Amino acid sequence: MIGSMTKDQIEHVLRRGLIGRIACSSDNRIYIVPVTYVFDGSYIYAHSREGLKIEIMRKNPDVCFEVDSIETMINWTCVVAWGKFEELNNDVERTKALKILNDRLMPYLLSETMRPQGHPQTPHGVEKNLKPVVYRINITEMTGRYEENHLGNLPQ
Prior knowledge:
The radius of gyration is 17 Å and the shape is globular. It has helices spanning 7-16, 52-59, 91-105; strands spanning 2-4, 19-26, 29-36, 38-39, 43-48, 62-72, 75-87, 133-147. The chain has a single domain, classed as Pnp Oxidase, Chain A (Roll). Strands 1, 2, 3, 4, 5, 6, 7 and 8 form an 8-stranded antiparallel beta sheet that branches. By secondary structure, it is an alpha+beta fold. It starts with a strand and ends in a 9-residue tail after the last strand. 21% of the residues lie in helices and 42% in strands. It is built from 3 helices and 8 strands.
């Protein structure tokens, strides 16, 4: 059975995910990349090094975010959210966002932009004073679809 998800089901998928895909566009070019993220019920928080994704989102803050969970070809969920990129430069907002990201993602080995300086897992050659770009997506619209077999996988 294929169906649409409720708002609560959509939020459940966003909360349990760790990796999603962010799509952004500028100058008639669309760019989509995977990102680690945290959904706090209001915003999608993420971090990145300076690069093409950040450059594009600064030019055009309208983004699309997708996360899915695929158990089998007949047992999956997919959420798509649209919103606005917001770079967090204010120290209070930035610190809050980094705590949200750290609390959720630290149990997993993180990218070099999130490891504390001198962390034993920091790869050789990583810049010592690397300051990640911290941002959030202010969600304006969400949709979700699922397919389930008789065993079911849709969150309640």
